[in-house]
Specification:
single chain; 3-stranded antiparallel beta sheet; 14 strands
């Protein structure tokens, strides 16, 4: 059941040395005691409790900048010819593309990379959609405005550090330390009856996406039962029993020093959360088989955590996974082919697991990346660009469609600002706001999460893009 308790703990570190107790403790969060009083309940959260339903968002970051115009490719003859001429030695052969059966309202004449047959099947069955030419924008921008400097542009437009941050914060005009997933958690965490574990679960350690003002990520790993506690604590060996007694004595001591007391409290709560999480995951058995890649194993752990949602007593969760290595300045074709194979299999396996658990309508998976790549070749790879293509998957996704405007890939088009760097025609605000609306963020709160949203979308109208069945 989902009760209205406000989240009042944050900041478990992914790992921390616990030399004082003679072992290594991996903390999943660190309670920020200074924020405890600020975490008093917000009235908006209680309004959501009546629905009593589970929803999860799964964010996959393709770190490094995915060359997404080789992931989603035009196969209409004239559009393909423009693509081929621009991409030169980085173009995929037309007869290698996997055709997409577009449902009504989708963009026709597109295919996917030959390494993604599972994605082709997910798309053709209506479980997956593409969103085309989306990127970081402060306000709508055209080529003339870009060239004469009459429009505000994202900070560090072609910088990995800035763009990977802005895709997680959706605040491109400043360098923010809070992500839009974390800001959602600040509002909605009270929906979860269990306040000991954050609604934000990370398979990739610390991240900006899940960092809010009162909330942060709970870090797990893809193996075992996910969470890692104090080594040997409550083990069966004689040494473990001695260690357990020693740790208990240290944690139960009544410390006068506030720092020692805080450290003991943090360690005790971290271990308690670990035991609760591990016990819940330990009781899960999935029939779906996952591949051995780290991405697939991470998706399997996400599936297990979702399967344990009732035991964990949660109504809302976000998950964050980083899949790095997409900065293909060299050997683009071979490297991307191998990596897209991993992505395609992992998405299909996860979709199968969600169907097995009966929660496909309750879970939405989406991809982000720093930016797309230049359409032109640098010799054997491509360089940093701007607008690109992303994927969204789930039972409530209006799949079998490509949303937005797939751009003309000819050089010197009305969106090309040099070397095939394309101005986005959809903003990350529009993309993420639609996911947030589905997740349960109200119209009264959404501008607090996406401060630039009204530059692109009138809140209270139709969904910004239309890819979610809200």
């Amino acid at each position: 059941m989902c009760n209205d308790h406000k989240y009042n703990r944050r900041r478990f570190l992914g790992t921390a040395s616990c030399a004082a107790i003679g072992s290594t403790t991996f903390f999943s969060t660190l309670f920020n005691l200074g924020m405890a009083n600020e975490a008093a309940g917000r009235a908006v959260a209680s309004a959501y409790n009546s629905s009593n339903n589970y929803k999860a968002l799964v964010c996959i970051l393709f770190a490094g900048g995915n060359d997404s115009f080789n992931m989603l490719v035009p196969n209409d003859t004239s559009a393909y010819n423009a693509y081929s001429a621009t991409r030169s030695n980085q173009a995929l052969a037309k007869n290698s593309l996997l055709g997409l059966n577009h449902l009504a309202g989708g963009l026709p004449g597109l295919g996917v990379h030959p390494s993604m047959p599972e994605v082709q099947q997910l798309y053709n069955s209506g479980n997956l959609a593409f969103i085309s030419n989306v990127g970081t924008l402060v306000e709508p921008t055209n080529k003339t405005q870009f060239e004469n400097g009459s429009v505000s542009l994202p900070l560090g437009l072609f910088s990995h550090a800035d763009q990977i941050q802005q895709w997680q914060t959706s605040v491109p005009h400043t360098r923010s330390s809070s992500g839009w997933g974390g800001r959602m958690s600040d509002i909605l965490q009270s929906m979860n009856n269990n306040q000991n574990i954050s609604m934000n679960i990370s398979l990739s350690g610390r991240n900006i996406f899940q960092s809010g003002n009162q909330s942060s990520e709970y870090t797990i790993n893809p193996s075992g039962t996910g969470s890692i506690g104090i080594e040997g604590y409550k083990g069966d060996s004689a040494l473990d029993m001695i260690r357990t007694t020693a740790v208990d004595n240290l944690l139960e001591d009544q410390y006068v020093d506030i720092f020692k007391k805080t450290y003991a409290d943090v360690t005790r709560n971290a271990q308690s959360s670990h035991e609760q999480f591990s016990s819940a995951i330990g009781g899960v058995n999935l029939n779906t088989t996952f591949s051995t890649s780290r991405l697939s194993q991470s998706m399997q752990m996400v599936a297990k955590t979702i399967a344990a949602r009732n035991t964990l007593d949660v109504c809302r969760q976000t998950f964050f996974i980083t899949f790095g290595g997409w900065d293909h300045h060299d050997e683009l074709l071979n490297n991307q082919a191998g990596m897209l194979t991993v992505v395609s299999k992992a998405l299909s396996e996860f979709n199968t697991a969600m169907t097995e658990l009966g929660v496909n309508d309750n879970v939405t998976t989406f991809t982000i990346s720093d930016f797309a790549r230049t359409l032109t070749s640098n010799g054997n790879g491509t360089d940093h660009a701007w607008g690109g293509n992303v994927m969204v998957m789930g039972g409530k996704v209006n799949g079998g469609r490509t949303y937005g405007s797939y751009p003309n890939l000819a050089l010197n088009s009305n969106l090309d600002v040099g070397n095939g760097v394309l101005i986005p025609t959809l903003s990350t605000d529009e993309y993420f706001a639609e996911l947030a609306q589905w997740y349960g963020v109200s119209n009264t709160e959404i501008n607090n999460i996406f401060p630039n949203l009204t530059n692109f979308y009138t809140v209270g109208g139709q969904p910004p893009i239309g890819f979610m069945n809200t």
